[in-house]
Amino acid sequence: MNKSLFCITLLLSISLSACGSKNATPPNTTTPPAANQGAGTAAGGGASTVDASAIYKQNCISCHGNALEGGVGPSLQKVGAKYSKDQIATILNNGKGAMPSFKGKLSDNEIGELATWLADKK
Fold first, then answer.
1. Model's pTM, two decimal places?
2. Whose CA, among 39, 91, 99, 116, lies 20 to 30 Å from 83?
């Protein structure tokens, strides 16, 4: 019994430590440069859904799952029905419960794009 409890605790600790891992790869590496050219009309414009999806894959997928289904963290498939864009941005900046803060790990623009993308999940 104690051995099983220890294994479960160890597995949970390892899983939670992966949630806030820093990635050295910038968020736009999954989109070829040619795809970004002409996509937006001004600086900061463009295919924010593609960027937000890449940001999610690099920072959130380990806890919230490939299809936003949840795992270590809760499902995000309908997070926009529960929280507004501003509330999601606040959670991303400050963390909540076991979720780490991404302030300083993601730029304000990345947090805004990710919050907008998640707020559309209703």
1. 0.61
2. 39
In a domain, 15, yes or no: no
Query: Is 5 among the domain residues?
Result: no
| 82 belongs to a structural domain | yes
For residue 121, give its domain range. 47-122
Give the burial class of 115: count Cβ atoms within 10 A of its Cβ; 0-12 exposed, 13-18 middle, 19 or more buried.
Answer: buried
CA 38, 59, 79, 94 dihedral sign is negative
Is residue 13 one of the residues assigned to a domain? no
Handedness of CA 114, 116, 121, 122 (dihedral sign): positive
- Identify the CATH number of the domain in which residue 80 sits: 1.10.760.10
Count the domains in the chain.
1
Q: Can you give the pLDDT of all 122 residues of the chain as single tens digits?
A: 667 666 566 555 555 555 554 444 444 444 433 333 333 333 444 444 448 999 999 999 999 999 999 999 999 999 999 999 999 999 999 999 999 999 999 999 999 999 999 999 99
The residues facing 99 across adjacent strands are 96
